[in-house]
Amino acid sequence: MRILFYSSCSNHFDPNIVHIKTMPSWADEWSAVAKAFPQHQFVIATMLPAMFLLDYDKEAVAKPDGVECKLLSGGGAQKIADEILALKPDVAVAASFWLTPYDWLGLQDAMVGDILRGRGVRVVCHSARTQALCFDKKATSDFLKRNGFKCADSVYVDYDLFWAQRKKSEVRDNVYREYVLRQIERLHFPVIIKDTTGLSSYGMEVLPTIGAVRGYLDSKKFNSSRLVEEFLDGPQFGTEIHCTQDQDGGGDVKALQDLNGGGLCVDVFPPLLYSVNQYGICSPKQSVKLGPLTLSRYKCQELRGELERLARLLQFEGSAQVDLVFHKEQWHIIEINPRLSGSSAAIALIKGKTLPRILTDFALGAAGLQAQDGGDSVPQKEDLWRKNPTLYLNIKFPNLNAEQMKALYQLPYVRYLCQTDNDAAKQRREMGFCEILFGGSERPQDLSDQLDDIKRRFPDIVEPGFFETAKKMLGSLLKD
């Protein structure tokens, strides 16, 4: 069988400026998958930065052994689909990633998937409908409320209507503006103002009073439609949902009808605890992640049921990430991202696999070959929701040189490193960071000792803020 993994990019991307390096390399991990399944042909078709699929150094791409690679030209869904069809795949799996400013790459991959399905290719990819709904934060909020999921109360502010009097000289009093401000006044403060189509928490602001909201809406910062929603305090989490083919509709997981026919197995992972910044928001460039957590006080089985219901309603197919907050003893959904995420490497470790192997499992499921294995690459199935699961910690360091990265990765408990360098950036946080994933023990104390060991070995690269945040998060588990 010819298995193809694909992803697209709508941005102008210069590989001479932005560099991404991972340990282990994607070339090594994809080579291991190809070696484990010699009966299949593997193809990667992607566009730089080719996250989760290929390594590159400037314009040179490292080709995994036993894997055919194709750098796509882009230019829209039809052109991308035509390039992929020329590679003659039997099964195609989307490995969608993200880039600023718009989190819409999954939507383009979904449109490509629709074209491939129409040409008889088995496809593992979320639908364009699902991608579009999750891309628009107002549409997401409306969907969650309509279907009884807990989420923040919010008010949508249409930019053109809010400033209608500027464009229509006959308008004396802006009725829409008055209505929106009255609705915002009824919210519980503080509130968060967010772009309806932005990426993650970039550009969000927390405002304490209606006066501050009025000031924001009257300022130059308000230059497109916004969502004003109540700030939900409480610990923040993230998790992933994997939906794979189950041709028989059996097993011990819930099955649902999918786009190709047959059923989907819904696999919900226990949540990872995320740190927040001084504004109470989880920042992608500053967060520390710890988990998975299955503590009874967080009502994790209730969360599991709700996320399974979410997957059925949205007809997920592939990997989807969900941001959550445990507010007033109840789970609330913050955001839904139907794509791979910054937690995907950790989720793969929690599952006892690599991310390339998980994507391969999606392909095998779509072809009805779930029983196939890749030798030692398939671990014994375990209950991830059990008490005291195996823990991992994801922490960020400043950009490291090659020797420092190699030395860190040689530590026995360090499992994964990913560093992004932006040579054109001027501000410290924009230059990039090195993300380190370590752990593998059920005992929080072991992770705390490992963190201390890293600080002892590399005192010059540990940022005190990240270190103290991680120690505090581990301390909360040690109390239990």
Structure description:
Mean pLDDT is 91; it is low at 247-262. Strands 2, 13, 14, 15, 16, 17, 18, 19, 20 and 21 form a 10-stranded antiparallel β-sheet that branches. Helix content is 31%, strand content 25%. The protein has helices at residues 26-36, 77-85, 105-118, 128-135, 137-146, 159-162, 164-167, 175-185, 210-217, 300-314, 344-350, 355-366, 402-409, 444-457, 464-478; strands at residues 2-6, 18-23, 41-46, 55-57, 60-62, 67-71, 91-94, 122-124, 154-157, 191-195, 205-207, 226-230, 236-246, 263-268, 272-274, 289-291, 318-327, 330-337, 391-397, 414-422, 432-441. The chain starts with a strand and ends with a helix. Helix 3 links the parallel strand 7 (91-94) and strand 8. It has 15 helices and 21 strands. It is α+β, with helices and mostly antiparallel strands.
Task: Label this structure with key terms.
single chain, 480 residues, alpha+beta, ten-stranded antiparallel beta sheet, five-stranded parallel beta sheet, 21 strands, 31% helix, 25% strand
Number of helices: 15
Q: How confident overall, as mean pLDDT?
A: 91
Count of beta strands: 21
Strand fraction equals 15-25%
Give the fraction of residues assigned to helices: 25-40%
Main pleated sheet: 10 strands, antiparallel
- How many angstroms does the end-to-end distance come to? 49 Å
Evaluate the radius of gyration.
23 Å
Shape estimate: globular
By secondary-structure content and strand pairing, the structural class works out as alpha+beta
* Uncertain residue ranges: 247-262
